[in-house]
Amino acid sequence: MFDTSFLKPIHDSAIAETIRYSAWIFPALETIHFIGLCLLVGAMMVVDLRLMGVLRAGSVKSVLRFTHLAIAGFSINLLSGIGFFVSNPENYAQNPLFWAKMILVLLAGLNVLWFELAERQLLLALPDSAALPSRTRAVAGLSLALWLGIIVLGRFLPLLGIG
Length: 163
What we know:
By secondary structure, this protein is mainly α.
């Protein structure tokens, strides 16, 4: 696909070799990644479904507290995902599904940034009984769709011999 020689120092690093040749590190990273995914997507599903109006239980203010779990899950996934990449950077870098997943992660991050800058304070100022703006519902729906797409693409990477 393209020249990946610039990734050779990463591939040849002690960390990469340790991950590649250890019998337990890569499976441990997969387990940690799954735990992070559960935190991230579980929290985002509660938040997004509440903001979309699908879940009616709990106030918006109380549901927004779940975003701390999502941040923790994302942080766990970022670190474990770097471990995956470091273990085999050339294969990841040449895989279009990996890049599609990274694009979706970037879009999900931009969606979160939009939510934090344009939606959160508005929602916190609304009374509990107020109807949520359609823009908020759209941002939540996009978030849910992006994270589900990220899961699907991420699941296909090991099936194609990557990861």
